[in-house]
């Protein structure tokens, strides 16, 4: 409450013409307040949005880059990228050719940015390394039991898992994928591949005439938060290569750029996504069932929101279990918080029974691709190709994509090896090889399951999807002659806030459920605070004008790391604050932003989460 | 005619020889977890990096080289096989060569500053540096002892918590500004000396890829504690490691009377 004297002063001030304040309000002589466009201080200072050539602070800085040459550069040291590297090295040994193969990985160590369930189908691994067991691949937990449940608010209804159903897991292994990837990195190095963790590929380089890709440039370091050069500024270096393999995982930022530049989605559907959360729990010994795999759908997600959960009991010495939750990013209610749905899910009596007495020791999140064959882009471009999740090869009903990623990496390696040998610029045989492989066969057979969720305009939701899987797919196995469409992009499906109801989530109890910030702390994520935020906006004024006013700032809720916050300023207006340090590189914001104003670019190499065997 | 060049002349013409200590520790941003058996913290698979104060020490040595105040900078690390990665980072920042004193896994957890300082002292006997720069403390044990102990063992002067190091013209003395509780203290120490780095000494450079690739070719020598004749018997035994107590929620009071009443209740005020 204003004291009377202060109120009088305010009333008097309103009558006087005033200079425009820094928030862009001005008072006319008649005392009316007129709102002008808010002069928010600059949010996006990143050099990708601010041309340093025109910036006086960069006038005297030497911008030349060191240049190195390699035959093949692979961006991303995950299952797809490392499989491509290993296969290339194997081909060189077989055929007596010599190639310099370089893998650039933005995480501080190979495997530190890997986030997955994971229940691994060993198909891809066996083909790459038939002797994987002798080589010590960390596949320690064969699946011993497999169940599927439908959760209602109070009950868990078991559903039959018949052999041949995509969720049937006999022969698969529960793994900590980060450790498998670290092992793959060691195999690659022992085969002579140069693997550089802590290095982010920031820019694609093109030939003089701009038609073909000639390599990548790594990130610059030492740029201050306001975009000016620090004493420690150093330019990234360039790698010129004959072939560039992009293996950045779901919704990679260089992949996004290349897909746009070469229009690789022409004639195909846009990619659709989900956000996956995972926590690592140390269970109470009496509730631990090593080798047990459980999947399910239902509560707390409403029937119109796609998603599901998994619980995988590892068998690596201690009673660890991976507990995860996926929410389809085609949800429509901007008040929905995928993170809070996940936290609430753990309170279901059936789930709480497994977790009670246990301790949460890890947390992470990552977007995953759900589009299947309908959304596969053209896989090759002049000078390179896309492999793994960056193209989008997850078998959604099976909830598995690693085996496909590894196979696609191997096939790309074969095509790239051939292209280099023959001097072809585009490794065109890769796409055909993939189409003839078991990857495509598998993806093709399940192509209608995910979109069947939208049958009858989504009125049946998850029931519709499951009915389709049981009644149609079980018999046709994908041979049905029709292909359902996903019906557009995820970000277009978000409805304005005024058409939706806010959701009431329970408070975390800090035993089974937790708050966002303590969860983010468990990712051990970190970024040098004095650098431009790597979550860049095409237009700084859009968050306030559209995201907040029309959609109530959904980025506050779909970001699993609390990067986006609308803070209230002194005059009551709200401004977007980007806490880039929290980012865990999941890419959800770039995917779900209704205005597509957010463009995720890579921060300095070595930053981001430090997952330990996730 | 044989001109005998004595060591002091060599040092003066070539600049100081600097030995820099670096320790591999759990990265400062990692959420540390106590092992279920309470014998220590979980280190397996956890992100490790160079102790931040040691990065500052390395940066200072490299800057002195760039200013031609130092001739050779050598990095040393006492630790497990993975300490090699830490040394490679130092080499990538501009250090000339590295020494790794490898500690077998069984003795790693019981390694204490007294052992490290003895090992460093032995290395100093053969390397004969003019200046040893160490980080003031490691962020895992926060001991703040190694530099001081090393100086005592060598009977060298020490300048700890340095925020500025200025060698004299003839490189026989160092003027060091130290961060102390009351502010800044400036002292002169004669060379050779031990200096430990504090936060504001400098801002370390990034180890960029071209330098990382060059560093692969720089020499990295391995030594064992046995070769140096240092016994690693622990002098202390860790009994248990626990999480800090969970902070209890506070209570809000509405008025001063309320506050005084609550303080009386708890017997904190008569």
Describe the structure.
Chain B: One of its GO terms (cellular component) is mitochondrial matrix. The complex is a heterodimer of chains A (614) and B (270). Chain A is 25% helix and 22% strand. By secondary structure, chain A is of the alpha+beta class. Chain A has a domain at 67-140 and 175-268 and 377-447: FAD/NAD(P)-binding domain (3-Layer(bba) Sandwich), CATH 3.50.50.60. In chain A, strands 3, 4, 10, 11, 12, 15, 21 and 22 form an eight-stranded mixed sheet that branches. Chain A has a seven-stranded mixed sheet with strand order 8-7-17-18-19-16-20. Chain A has a three-stranded antiparallel sheet with strand order 5-9-6, with no helix packed on it. The model of chain A is unreliable at 16-39 (pLDDT under 50). Chain A is built from 15 helices and 26 strands. In chain A, α2 packs parallel to α4 (177-190), α2 crosses α8 (402-422) and α8 runs antiparallel to α9 (429-435). By secondary structure, chain B is an alpha/beta fold. Chain B has a single domain (13-245), classed as HUPs (Rossmann fold), CATH 3.40.50.620. In chain B, α3 packs across α7 and α5 crosses α6 (146-154). In chain B, β8 (173-180) and β9 form a beta hairpin. Chain A binds chain B through residues 66, 68, 108-109, 112, 178-179, 196, 199, 218, 221-222, 230-232, 234, 236-237, 282, 318, 361, 521-522, 524-526, 604, 610, 612-613, and chain B through 27-31, 33, 36, 44-47, 49, 203-206, 208-210, 212-213.
